[in-house]
Sequence to fold (94 residues):
Amino acid sequence: MPTYEYECQECGFRFDQFQSMTAEPLTECSECKGAVKRLISLGGGVLFKGKGFYQTDYRTSDYQKKAKEDQGLKSKKVEPSASACGTSSKKQES
Fold:
């Protein structure tokens, strides 16, 4: 059932009311018994909490594989080797 927002025209009291879409709009304020007007509201917002809904639901399997590989590389601590620095690990003969 949708939630409708109302405002009293007499006292300014605002309230929400759960109603069926086929129900007649309310006409009387619960506070002062004055006339109420149904407002146009944004409705409920969607909140995405936590991680993973995007990665697990909307990404391709190729992307997910690559992401797992990248995650594995980040978790391993890679130390540079001597050959990567341009020097040899063997002793040079003179």
Q: What stands out?
A: The chain has two helices and three strands.
